[in-house]
Amino acid sequence: MVKGIYIHIPFCSYKCPYCDFTSVVSYPLKHEDYIKLLIREAKLYGDVSAKIESVYFGGGTPTLLPPYLLGKLLEELDRLFNLSGVLEITVECNPETYRYNEFKELLSAGVNRLSIGVQSFTEKGLRILSREHSVEESIRAYMDAREAGFENVNLDLIFAFPEQKPEDISTELNWIGSLKPDHVSAYMLTPYGGTPMGNKILGGEMQTPEEETLEDIYTRLWKGLKELGYGRYEISNWAKEGKECRHNLLYWTMEEFLGLGVSAWGFLEKKRYGNSKNIGSYIKAVSELKRPVQSEIGLSEKELYEEELMLKLRLKWGLREEELTLVPEHLRGFFEVREGKVGIREEFMLLTNELITDVLLYNSDRNITEVRNG
Ligand code: SF4
């Protein structure tokens, strides 16, 4: 049963040097025509059984498109999949794009959650990340969204970028404390090879914080967010009570979802599929009424379980107490148990990937039914 729809909008007004998402700065395709293609693609999934809880517009920069176009797509999705039971419709927004009027229009179109790509509340951070907006613009976008009536707003932050100091975290936290978003996502900068910044970091031309500094940065961040009343529910995500992102939770609990648009990923009938990353190929396939799928990965029971286990370990309280047996004894000190749930201790979050690898290895030869039952 499909519960979510992810829509990828592959347009940006500039390319950030660290970004490896599929997005283009100029392409001879009108935004309106891209929406028509998305509608056509959605119709190719008209026969799936769906009870949609969440729709998510990601990118790229969805807010490069006028709100009425996003609304038009939502109307079609409603006709096709019946969105009456939908709980969350999120749009990712760059701070320099929308103002009060656009936010009002977006609300009228049914969008009820915003995710604003602030990335840093320090001008230094924005300069290093080569973002084309100022701190002031981020604050203004947030205030306009609130004034327009958005009651569920996430702010996206990046940490561990070159030149970031542990002391800089207090500026990020001060703004979070005064703006009071409902949700905060804080992602550690990943140096992807093939991106200008990733190449420089991997080639030694640019340095990200040393391990000790990184630990200090992360500790200040999670402690500060906790003091401000945010609960961490996944390795990179914090929320006020009841404001956890439903869309991400669908991914993390292995629910089925459709991915529409260039480079979008979906999960259907135990298969992960990825759409073409090339806009030309995407246009061609959809114009010929073919699903623009470029890759499809069928997952065996064992692979499905491993993926489920990995996602559970990324969640703060993803494992049941009975499932603690999945963790080798010598690693149990890294975990804590509360109210029947198990999670990695806050202070060891930076070790999550290593812990996941060890837990998966420990269970790799075990019988899947035995493992499933903990
Ligand atoms: S605005 Fe977002 S999607 Fe576009 S290039 Fe920058 S990080 Fe990537």
Q: How does this model look, in words?
A:
- With 374 residues, the protein is α/β, with parallel strands linked by helices.
- It has two domains: 2-251, Alpha-Beta Barrel (TIM Barrel), CATH 3.20.20.70; 302-372, no CATH class.
- Helices cover 37% and strands 22% of the residues.
- The chain has 13 helices and 15 strands.
- The strands form three sheets. A nine-stranded mixed beta sheet has the order 7-8-6-5-4-3-2-1-9, sandwiched between helices. The protein has a three-stranded antiparallel beta sheet with strand order 10-11-12, with no helix packed on it.
- α2 (67-81) packs parallel to α3 and α11 runs antiparallel to α12.
- Bound molecules: iron/sulfur cluster (SF4).
- Residues 12, 15-16, 19, 21, 23, 59-61, 94, 117 line the site of iron/sulfur cluster (SF4).
- Probably acts as a heme chaperone, transferring heme to an unknown acceptor. Binds one molecule of heme per monomer, possibly covalently. Binds 1 [4Fe-4S] cluster. The cluster is coordinated with 3 cysteines and an exchangeable S-adenosyl-L-methionine.
- InterPro entries: Aldolase_TIM, Coproporphyrinogen-III_oxidase, Elp3/MiaA/NifB-like_rSAM, HemW-like, rSAM, rSAM_sf.
- It is found in: Cytoplasm.
- This is Heme chaperone HemW.
- GO terms for molecular function: 4 iron, 4 sulfur cluster binding; coproporphyrinogen oxidase activity; metal ion binding.
